[in-house]
Structures are given as C-alpha cells and as structure tokens.
Specification:
Blueprint (H helix, E strand, L loop, with lengths): L7 E7 L8 E7 L7 E11 L1 H7 L16 E9 L11 E5 L8 E5 L3 E3 L6 H5 L2 H14 L7 E5 L4 H12 L3 E6 L2 H10 L3 E4 L5 H8 L5 E6 L5 H8 E9 L12 H6 L3 E4 L7 H14 L1 H6 L6 E6 L3 H10 L5 E5 L1
Parallel strand pairs: 8-9, 8-11, 9-10, 11-12, 12-13, 14-15
Antiparallel strand pairs: 1-2, 3-4, 3-6, 3-15, 4-5, 5-7
Helix pairs in contact: 3-4, 3-9, 6-7
C-alpha cells in the first residue's frame, strides 16, 4: 500500500437535478478497485459539458458508473485491484473515467490511465483525457482526417475546440473555427486556428466558401447539430465527412439526402461515456502511441481557463454555462 487509504472521503454529490446550487459536499465511502482497476488519490478533476448536463438531469450516468460527476482526473495511484499490474502504487497518472472525479478518491480502469511526465503539471494533466480521447477518436478515427485537409470546428474556444485546433495543427490540418465574439476569434487564432469566423457577425457558410475558394472543407466537427447540420453540409467539399459529438442545438436535423448521395458525404458521430471499457482501453493505447509523445515533449498542452477548489464546483459550472471560458476548467481536490 502506497499510503493509508481512509474509509470515507469528501465528494461533491447532486442532491436533485437542478442548478449549480444542487452540488453539495458529502462524506461518502471510498470506493474499492475491482479487477483491472486502480484507486487514484485525485489531485485535479476536469469540468466538462456532460457534467453540467448530468447535474441538470439531462444526461444520466451509465448503470455501472459512479453517480458522482467527473469524467477525467489526475493524481496518484494508491491501491490496485487484481490484475492491474501495469501500474505501480505511487504512479502519477491522468485517466478517463466514467464518473466519480469530483471526489478525493476515484476508481479508474488501469487501461485508461496515461502516465504524467514530470514536465506536465497535475492541473494540466487533468484537463487532457476527455477532450483528447474525444477529438482523437472523432477527427482521426471516425473522420479520417489526413494531412493537408481542412477541418471546420464549431465552438473553437471550448475545451473540445481548443484541443481540435491543437491536434489538427500538430497533424498537418488546416483548421477553421467559429466563435461567438471577435475576442474569442482572436484567442482561437492565437491558439493556432488558421481562420476564425465570428458567427454572430457573419454567415459561416458564406465565409467558409470564401475562405476555401468555393471548394469547402473536408471535415466538420459539429457540437451543435439541429439546424446547423444542413448548413454544415453546405460547407463540405465532395467526399466530405460530418462528425457529430454533441447536440447542443437540438437532436433533430432535416437534410437533403440527394445531396448526401450526389456529393458522397459521410455522416457519423459518437458518444464516449457509454462505450465499454474494452473500447476505451484500445483508444488509450492508440493515444499513448500516436499523441502522448507530443505531450511528453511539451508540444501538446491544454489551454487552461480557470481552476476552482472542489467545494466551489458550482461556481465552475456557472462559468461553463455562461460561455465565457476559453479552454479547460478544472477543480483542485
């Protein structure tokens, strides 16, 4: 045992679906790692849009997941379950988890943990897994992005958006983003976006056509859905791919399937949290091989917005819901 693990811990629980005020501090039992799992003493936990939706009662946790919020963590391994031999107690790790991050201790699948290099601060490590797993899988695995192609990303200064910009540029893509203000467009350009469109002042369909000389983009990473989908399709070049990862603008879209056929579009999308651990382990292996060397070298770092104490998670949620953040919000545990 690396260090004594208490029987109880402080965690932020949801008293009932509602606003940020429903997040309250409680004493709860420390979970015990099962086969293939480790117990992590949490240093920092990332705050993500699904946390807000779950708090509102709109995104229930999977049946086998912790009811606590928190989908990514950084910290120290303090206990191991049977078969979790790939990690030693005392190891610094960040991990994608199915819930439970808003707490002093959290269970993580050993195969979904990534080693934290000495050069990477723990707060930044906690800001990586959710966006990195999501963007890598959807842009490169599902979206088949290739060097030299052009990608359109909505919400360019969100956690997902900033990660998409940085990963896109590291792998040779041209990245166009949309943002809700000129200040955010400027920040997106500073982060690495080739072009940024203020969607409140300009029609992004017309701007994409102008910016690409009428050719369109090869890939759209869409977090809005709803009535954005037919507009997104107008931005796509022939053989373009449309990848949906959230439905913030509504789940239903009306599109012309004749256009999809004639221009040979691919429409796809995914959700990450409900996927089985076996899939996430494979994704972690792919990221460890293809992306993690860039983290170790310092070439990839998350864009950090704000850090709140765990007890002020409600304030962190308010900041995310206000839409003023640029990059990632984390909680210090």
């Amino acid at each position: 045992m690396y260090q004594a693990v208490p029987d109880e811990m402080i965690a932020l629980a949801i008293t009932a679906p509602g606003g940020p005020e429903v997040l309250v501090s409680q004493q709860v039992p420390v979970p015990k790692p099962g086969p293939g799992e480790v117990l992590v003493k949490v240093a920092f936990a990332g705050v993500n849009r699904p946390d807000v939706l779950q708090r509102q009662g709109l995104y229930p946790a999977p049946p086998d997941a912790s009811p606590l919020l928190g989908l990514e963590i950084s910290g120290i391994v303090v206990a191991r379950g049977e078969g979790a031999d790939s990690l030693q107690e005392g190891a610094r790790v960040c991990a994608l988890v199915a819930g439970g991050g808003y707490a002093e201790y959290c269970i993580a699948d050993a195969g979904q943990c990534l080693p934290i290099p000495d050069s990477l601060p723990l707060d930044q490590a906690a800001a990586l897994p959710e966006t990195l797993f999501t963007v890598w899988h959807n842009v490169f695995d599902r979206g088949w992005a290739m060097e030299g192609e052009t990608m359109l990303v909505h919400g360019g200064t969100s956690g997902i958006g900033t990660m998409a910009i940085m990963l896109g540029k590291l792998f040779g893509l041209k990245v166009i983003v949309t943002c809700g203000s000129e200040a955010k467009c400027q920040r997106a350009r500073e982060i690495g976006a080739d072009l940024a469109i203020n969607y409140k002042d300009a029609d992004f369909v017309e701007e994409v056509a102008r910016m690409t000389g009428g050719k369109g983009v090869n890939l759209v990473l869409d977090m809005i859905s709803g009535d954005y989908v037919p507009r997104n399709l107008k931005c796509l070049a022939e053989d373009g791919r449309h990848v949906t990862i959230a439905v913030l603008g509504g789940a239903k879209a009306q599109i012309n399937m004749a256009v999809v056929m004639s221009r040979r579009y691919v429409l796809t999308g995914s959700t990450l949290r409900p996927r089985p651990a076996s899939f996430k382990r494979l994704l972690a292996q792919e990221i460890a091989s293809q992306v993690w060397p860039m983290v170790e070298s310092g070439d990839l770092r998350p864009v950090m917005d704000a850090c709140f104490p765990l007890a002020q998670a409600g304030e962190a949620h308010r900041r995310m819901e206000a839409g003023d953040h640029v990059g990632k919000i984390v909680l210090e545990v």
